[in-house]
Amino acid sequence: MSDTETESDIDPLGPNVRQTAAELATGDRTETLLQTDGLVKQFGGFTATDDVDFSVAEGELRCLIGPNGAGKSTLLNLITGTYEASDGSIYYNGHDITDLDPHERVSRGISMKFQVPSVYGDLSVRENVRLPVQQFADGEERRRLVAEAIEAAGLTGYEDVAASQLSHGQQQQLEIGMAAALEPDLLLLDEPVAGLDVAEREAIAERIRRLNEEEGIAFIVIEHDTDFVASIAEEVTVLHNGEVFREGPIEEIESDPEVQRIYLGGES
């Protein structure tokens, strides 16, 4: 090592190692977990997302807001692989996942709870939670993980109740529990408090904060309720007409006159 060369100046990968775009965007040498690059989704002649560059850091809790038709759910469906991208790339944890099937993305650590609860109504709470857990655990470990997930969802005592008999708020908690039971690095939630009362909203907010802070799960949360967003969000991304319109802390977003115009009711 020369007198002017420090240890930090040396590339640990070596001078001849070339990194892929995915590794440069989201690899071990970055704090970025997810990055979309010029992401486009077209349905016939309609462009739902248009050249979207969007990123989430490891352990970040980011909310995604915007008026109806802004492309929010489309973006989440592109990230999970439910929709195939028309153009652009999706990088996750050092890998290009643009062409991976949804189940492959789940195995890499991406999980999602959709807007409408998709629990199995004819199955009990315990059976619903067991479905994701049994993919990677069995025996005593599986029983322990199922019990912990049920307790975290506030459903202790409901283990043998059919999911269809739960309230809407309880079903939301159950589905978050099922998604979190997969032990993801990134959990996507599409309007998790739609149709819930104040107490149920606060319970969901507390659940999200706890999973983020204690389990280190990164979140992308779509939500229209800005009070709920303010209670959980670190950073907020505003989508409009399929494009990233603004990004920043919720206080800046709420006070931005252009955001107010397109999102908070000022636009005719």
From TrEMBL:
CDD domains: ABC_Mj1267_LivG_branched
UniProt-listed PROSITE patterns: ABC_TRANSPORTER_2
Entry GO MF terms: ATP binding; ATP hydrolysis activity
InterPro entries from the UniProt entry: AAA+_ATPase, ABC_AA/LPS_Transport, ABC_transporter-like_ATP-bd, P-loop_NTPase
Every ABC transporter domain range: 34-266
Keyword ATP-binding tagged: yes
PANTHER family: CONSERVED COMPONENT OF ABC TRANSPORTER FOR NATURAL AMINO ACIDS-RELATED (PTHR45772), HIGH-AFFINITY BRANCHED-CHAIN AMINO ACID TRANSPORT ATP-BINDING PROTEIN (PTHR45772:SF8)
Name of the molecule in the record: Amino acid/amide ABC transporter ATP-binding protein 1 (HAAT family)
Species: Haloarcula quadrata
